Amino acid sequence: MAAQVASKAGYVDAYRSMREGALYLIIAFLLVSVGTIAVLFSLLPAFFIRPPSIWQYGLEAALVSLAFVAILVIIGGIIGLIGLWGKFVPGVRRLAGLNPEFGTSSTLIYVGLFWGLILMIIGAVLLLVIVGIFVMIVAAILMILGYVGLIVLGFKLYDVERSGLYLAAGILFIVGIFVPIASFIAWILLYVALGESIKRAEAAPAAPTAPAPVSPS
Questions:
Q1: Residue-wise pLDDT tens digits, 119-138
Q2: Single pTM value for the model
Q3: Which of 146, 158, 162, 216 would you label with 40, given CA atoms 20 to 30 Å apart?
Q4: Are 186 and 169 in contact (CB under 8 A)?
């Protein structure tokens, strides 16, 4: 009985930690997206406007935008690291401890997303130097590896929880490798699905145990 209660509590803790981490990552995604969109709108005039005085103005605006996006990427990366290192990865590892089928996704998420975000922050710091671009390319490759872990996680959660939201999240993570907005939607679906899983786990009654044998008098 005690082991069953502990297992139930373990799933609740794992799902809750993952859900909180997903929320941090949603916020981080928004910050990075805002910075990327801002820099794109500033860089386009710099490349297409030709008169020297306007070109100089456009170049200065582009440099300011690069600094702005670097700040947002750094802030978003830090929030993402807090969500990953402090919440999501520990939750997935706890889940893998309860169910070994989640071991592969746990490893891929840790290696890909966690270290990918660290390199992305370093690359953002060095964005105005050429080496920063190469660092961010390596970070992007690691992030793809992490997304493979998220895809596996979504499908495994669907197998365990039988919630279509997990299946949809897994599919959207695949699309997200090529279309980033799909990943954002996938994180939202994962956040909602984990909330439902927490409610089900908390409401599930513990399995009854066999009565103790009565000793003959």
A1: 887 887 776 677 778 888 88
A2: 0.76
A3: 146
A4: yes
